Automatic annotation (TrEMBL):
<dbReference type="InterPro" id="IPR020889">
    <property type="entry name" value="LipoPS_assembly_LptD"/>
</dbReference>
<dbReference type="Pfam" id="PF04453">
    <property type="entry name" value="LptD"/>
</dbReference>
<comment type="function">
    <text>Together with LptE, is involved in the assembly of lipopolysaccharide (LPS) at the surface of the outer membrane.</text>
</comment>
<comment type="subunit">
    <text>Component of the lipopolysaccharide transport and assembly complex. Interacts with LptE and LptA.</text>
</comment>
<dbReference type="GO" id="GO:0015920">
    <property type="term" value="P:lipopolysaccharide transport"/>
</dbReference>
<comment type="similarity">
    <text>Belongs to the LptD family.</text>
</comment>
<dbReference type="GO" id="GO:1990351">
    <property type="term" value="C:transporter complex"/>
</dbReference>
<dbReference type="GO" id="GO:0009279">
    <property type="term" value="C:cell outer membrane"/>
</dbReference>
<keyword id="KW-0998">Cell outer membrane</keyword>
<protein>
    <recommendedName>
        <fullName>LPS-assembly protein LptD</fullName>
    </recommendedName>
</protein>
<dbReference type="GO" id="GO:0043165">
    <property type="term" value="P:Gram-negative-bacterium-type cell outer membrane assembly"/>
</dbReference>
<keyword id="KW-0472">Membrane</keyword>
<dbReference type="InterPro" id="IPR050218">
    <property type="entry name" value="LptD"/>
</dbReference>
<keyword id="KW-0732">Signal</keyword>
<feature type="domain" description="LptD C-terminal">
    <location>
        <begin position="296"/>
        <end position="668"/>
    </location>
</feature>
<dbReference type="InterPro" id="IPR007543">
    <property type="entry name" value="LptD_C"/>
</dbReference>
Length: 755
């Protein structure tokens, strides 16, 4: 036991703590609320660091008997180990290492907690004490807590309890919301806090009550009830009460019973696991008795797993299933046919001939759910596919070898096995100002087809030589665009492509479809995806692209381009495999443009022009005003001359899509989206709402309504309300995903910072 005495000529004073928190503020002024601390930490003496268990008292006046007791008055600073006390006066019993502090005091403890009050009794040796009518503040792992308490009992260095307590995680001085509890106990060893008879008070109004709740004080996971979720829509009120299970450091689960008022009881569960070599999750939703459907025992299940078996072998699986054909239309805002993937795979890579051989084994099947008209088109199941790819660079020469063998299976179509071998060699003659890349290859395929209906079992093959030459130049100059200085590039590109003509109508179509016509498609070898259809080609694609780059960083601000393909032969392979002739000498023209046209404006456009008929085939254009986070206006128009509107029905398509997130006051934001089909005339999706951001960042609230199409002449409604409390949780049902997907450039209001 040791005591060091010093004297100070400074003055120490503070206002009496405000314990009421009666005036809960919905509005706060950040300029007036700029306080680093709700309770200022106790100031130190500035003297040298003390040895362990040595007490130093610094004061204006000090009286008492050496080694027995002392009374210090006037700007008193008591320091011991990692604790500091400031007070107007202190009575120190050196025999048992206890102090009494009065009038006003501030105590900063070793765990980062600061307590401010009127009187204090404290055992310096055992870190025990009691306080009446105090304010407190603590910060740990970036999470801060402030509050007031009628009494505090400090049991030791890591255990304390408070009575008649109010606390929140807001900025200093902001009491917009708080939790009021009859008792709050904390244990810093276990990092657990327990509150009894706790109420969440928002704007002075209690909105939630629980007789008992425990929570982690450091933000870590802990088992317990989560905040209920609520949503209002066409199916009535949807509520869930989730319970979280912290099973282990690498495993957890959530079980959420709920009710949809117009449908019935629900149960949702999630299980997650994580190991050094594997991880995965299981999600299940279950409704035993849906009052609005003919189906009972409705469910949706998802399972995913990924695994590292060795440094060469990885794998995994993903499974997804729904109980009935109507499930996705009843509970998701979709009108199209849905193919739910069920996949398992293995990936293997190993050194081979101076490079890496990559191999893959995949099994894939689908559950196909019908669209709003009841139509389905189930893809072939892959049972299985084994593929191998190898690539090696040797100087300017690149060797490529791609191969696969796949078993395709379908209940209502001819099944079979397909083998594909596609070797190629490419040479790369490149300079900073341009390149030429000739390539030669062979696409060989072999089919073994099963007997199906009146079709007998048979085999077929196809071998197609392929030659291409890709070339381009890059020119640069200094340029001005919209009063800004840039480097402008001019990038002409020529792509010659030759593929032997061969009818393919004797071959099945397991996985091919026609790619959308675009600028990028002009410079690909094959018009089709997959391996069942290979286009006949003797053509030259011509393109010109220009880009505007930042002179310092090279960042791209704007680009535009135009391209077309010239045909040197008339042969044409259709998707059904037939070989036809076409009198066209040129393809359609494609033009694109997009980027930043002003510091606050973004625009893009794609135009597909049918040259032979001199008419627009497809066109879409969009513009977005986005001067800062939280302020965005967007509009898009889409046109298609001959598009599939519904399954098997084609017509002109004209869509407009308007979206906005815009501040109507410094802290109120309007959000909305209108997606409307002009032809055919129908409403697709509409969203409208208001969001409020507390200027001190302590809370935000969103109220959003949505109406969306779910089928032919069928719509559903949804209503979202969420109250987000800083570092605590959110109440209601969050519309964030709906707004993020519907409004380009959308930002959460509580993440918006104003200039």
């Amino acid at each position: 036991m040791a005591l060091i005495v010093a004297f100070s000529g400074n003055t120490w004073a503070t206002d009496a703590p405000d314990l009421s928190w009666k005036r809960s503020r919905f509005h706060c002024s950040p300029a007036k609320n700029i306080q680093r601390y709700a309770v200022e930490p106790a100031k130190k003496s500035g003297e040298d660091k003390l040895p362990e268990d040595v007490t130093r008292i610094t004061a204006d006046k000090l009286a008492g008997k050496s080694t027995v007791s002392a009374v210090a008055t006037g700007d008193v600073i008591v320091e011991r180990n990692d604790e500091t006390l400031n007070a107007n006066w202190v009575e120190y019993n050196q025999t048992i290492d206890t102090i009494k502090a009065g009038n006003e005091f501030t105590l900063t403890r070793g765990d980062g907690q600061t307590i401010r009050g009127q009187t204090l009794e404290y055992d310096l040796k055992n870190n025990k004490g009691s306080v009446q009518n105090s304010e407190f503040e603590a910060e740990q792992n970036g999470r801060r807590l402030q509050g007031v308490s009628g009494s505090i009992a400090m049991h030791d260095k890591t255990h304390s309890s408070m009575h008649d307590v109010k606390f929140n995680t807001c900025a200093a001085g902001d009491h917009s919301w708080y939790i009021q509890a009859s008792e709050l106990s904390t244990n810093h060893d276990t990092q657990i806090g327990v509150a009894k008879h706790a109420r969440l008070v928002f704007g002075g109004v209690p909105v939630l009550y629980t007789p008992w709740v425990d929570f982690p004080t450091n933000g870590n996971r802990k088992s317990g009830l989560l905040v209920p979720t609520m949503k209002v829509g066409s199916d009535g009120l949807e509520t869930e009460l989730p319970y979280y299970f912290n099973l282990a450091a690498n495993r957890d689960a959530t079980l959420a019973p709920g009710v949809i008022s117009d449908r019935g009881a629900t149960l949702r569960g999630e299980f997650r696991y994580l190991e050094p070599n594997y991880s995965g999750s299981l999600n299940v939703k279950y409704m035993p008795n849906d009052q609005r459907s003919q189906y009972k025992n409705r469910y949706e299940a998802k399972f995913s797993h990924s695994h590292i078996f060795s440094d060469k072998l990885t794998g995994g699986m993903s499974l997804h299933r729904m109980s009935d054909d109507d499930y996705q239309r009843n509970f998701y805002n979709t009108t199209s046919s849905v193919n739910l993937e069920n996949r398992a795979w293995l990936d293997y890579h190993t050194p081979f001939l101076g490079s890496t051989l990559n191999a893959n084994l995949t099994v894939l099947d689908y559950q196909t759910l019908p669209d709003s008209s009841g139509n389905t088109d189930k893809p072939y199941a892959i049972l299985p596919k084994l593929s191998a790819n190898w690539q090696k660079n040797h100087g300017i020469t690149q060797y490529n070898f791609n191969s696969q063998i796949t078993r395709f299976d379908h209940k209502n179509k001819q099944s079979g096995t397909r083998m594909v071998v596609n070797p190629s060699v490419q040479w790369d003659f490149s300079k900073p100002w341009g390149y030429v890349r000739p390539k030669v290859g062979i696409h060989a395929s072999r089919y073994w087809l099963d007997e199906f209906g009146d079709k007998s079992a048979r085999s077929a093959s196809r071998v197609l030589p392929m030659v291409s030459v890709d070339s381009g130049l890059t020119f640069e100059r200094n340029a001005n665009l919209f009063d800004q200085k840039y480097i402008q590039t001019f990038e002409p590109r020529l792509f010659y492509n030759y593929v032997t003509s061969k009818s393919q109508n004797d071959l099945p179509n397991f996985d091919s479809s026609e790619n959308a016509f675009s600028y990028g498609q002009l410079f690909r070898e094959n018009l089709y995806s997959g391996n069942d259809r290979i286009n006949s080609s003797n053509s030259l694609s011509v393109g010109l692209r220009t880009r505007f780059l930042d002179a310092q960083t090279g960042a791209e601000y704007f680009r535009m381009g135009i391209g077309q393909k010239m045909y040197f032969k008339t042969d044409n392979v259709l998707l059904d495999g037939s070989l036809t002739t076409s009198a066209r000498k040129r393809s359609d023209i494609v033009l694109f443009a997009g980027g930043r046209i002003h510091p606050n404006w973004f625009a893009d456009m794609n135009w597909h022009y049918n040259q032979s008929e001199r008419i627009t085939q497809r066109f879409d254009a969009g513009i977005r005003y986005n001067p800062q986070a939280g302020k965005v206006l967007a509009a898009r128009y889409k046109y298609g001359r001959h598009e599939e509107i519904y399954s098997g029905y084609f017509d002109k398509l004209k869509h407009i899509d308007l979206a906005a997130q815009y501040p109507i006051t410094p802290n109120w934001y309007a959000v909305g989206r209108l997606n409307y089909s002009i032809n055919p005339s129908t409403f697709i999706n509409g969203t409208m709402g208001l969001e409020y951001r507390n200027p001190c960042g302590c809370w935000s609230v969103s109220v959003v309504g949505q109406r969306y199409v779910t089928g032919l002449n069928e719509h559903k409604n949804a209503f979202y309300f969420t109250l987000q409390l800083k570092n605590l949780s959110s109440l209601g049902n969050n519309p964030y995903e709906t707004l993020r997907l519907g409004i380009p450039g959308y930002h959460k209001t509580n993440e918006v910072t104003t200039k």
